[in-house]
Specification:
Strand order of the largest sheet: 1-2
Number of helices: 19
Order of helices and strands: HHHHHHHHHHHHHHEHHHHEH
Distance between the termini: 33 Å
Oligomer: single chain
Number of strands: 2
Strand content: under 5%
Length: 334
């Protein structure tokens, strides 16, 4: 069955699943911030406990095990925060399709304040590149395809060591400079002080500036600079980029043109992969490309309906895992 027929046959189900649920939106955003709060609280508590033990013991041989435990808690919190920053990108992605709230002004405001601005991004900037990606996937008119096919970083197959080298450079911040041309399209920082192309509305620039000015003032008042730097900004410019790279690699076969069933992939993923690499159902990527109007919390139901179609199961690129010997990423490595 050709893609146009899938869109016709499942149009009714997709239309029903395109209804926006405000409770689902509140729950989705709330869960991400609650998880981040727990991560920050865990790091704070571990640091306070270590300080108390170190002061009382005055002996690093006694304090060392506690220091190692504190480092482990911080590393876990770092991973959780980067994963949730990735989740905010996916929520912003829904808002880019106006699938967060029915009212477009509120859609932008909620997305920016709770998801995009904290990641240094602006929803409207993301939309500039993302909507053409849907209309012209894997073609010269697709900004993502043009960017990802430059430089060879996303050319596959490639040796396993080469991919690991790239990911290590992402996670250590060494690759930040090479990421910047792509990030510049998404981030608000590039357009706050200079916006010759008039990409942003003046109110969006003002909101972004006020948001981050408020963040800086709050951290100055409460003396929480270390948490802002090491448990928010550092994950954003390191591990988050590595996670984003792996997801980008998995979503599309950049060497194929064709239709969504040929160049777009679905990956089930295990619980850890869905937490970090493909949060909030972004792994249901074929279903999303067929019907971008369906919000993230309804994509599993849409995918389940499509999977009942023998043609879809046979034609679609359906994978069980991202990583591991039989995972999608491993299949791309030589």
């Amino acid at each position: 069955m050709v893609v146009s027929n899938y869109r016709r046959v499942y149009a009714g189900q997709a239309r029903a699943l395109s209804e926006i649920s405000i409770p689902s939106v509140i729950l989705t955003i709330g869960k991400q911030w609650a998880t981040i709060a727990l991560a920050f609280l865990a790091s704070w508590a571990a640091g306070r406990y270590l300080y108390t033990v170190a002061v009382q013991a005055k002996d690093w041989e006694i304090a060392l095990p506690y220091a190692l435990g504190c480092a482990l808690v911080f590393a876990l919190s770092f991973f959780v925060v980067a994963s949730k920053q990735h989740a905010f990108l996916i929520i912003m992605h829904d808002a880019c399709h106006f699938r967060l709230l029915r009212n477009r002004r509120l859609n932008e405001l909620v997305s920016n304040l709770f998801c995009a601005f904290p990641n240094g991004m602006i929803t409207a900037s993301y939309r500039l590149g993302h909507l053409p990606h849907h209309g012209f996937t894997n073609s010269p008119h697709d900004p993502y395809w043009v960017y990802l096919t430059q430089g060879g970083e996303y050319n596959f197959p490639k040796p396993r060591w080469e991919l690991w080298k790239l990911l290590c450079k992402d996670a250590s911040g060494v690759n930040l400079r090479t990421w910047w041309p792509g990030l510049r399209i998404l981030t608000g920082w590039a357009y706050v002080f200079q916006d010759k192309q008039k990409f942003l509305d003046p109110s969006e620039r003002a909101q972004f500036t006020i948001f981050w000015a408020t963040v800086l003032v709050v951290n100055a008042v409460f003396g929480t600079w270390l948490y802002l730097i090491f448990l928010w900004l550092l994950p954003m410019f390191t591990l988050f980029l590595a996670l984003n790279r792996l997801r980008n690699i998995a979503e599309h076969d950049l060497n194929k043109r064709g239709n969504e069933l040929e160049h777009t992939r679905h990956v089930d993923g295990n619980w850890l992969e869905r937490f970090a690499l493909a949060p909030l159902n972004v792994n249901f990527h074929i279903a999303h490309h067929l019907f971008p109007s369906v919000p993230l919390y309804n994509l599993p139901r849409l995918h389940a309906a499509l999977m009942k179609d023998p043609g879809f199961k046979e034609e679609g690129e359906i994978w069980k895992r991202y990583l591991g010997k039989e995972g999608l990423i491993s299949s791309l490595l030589s």
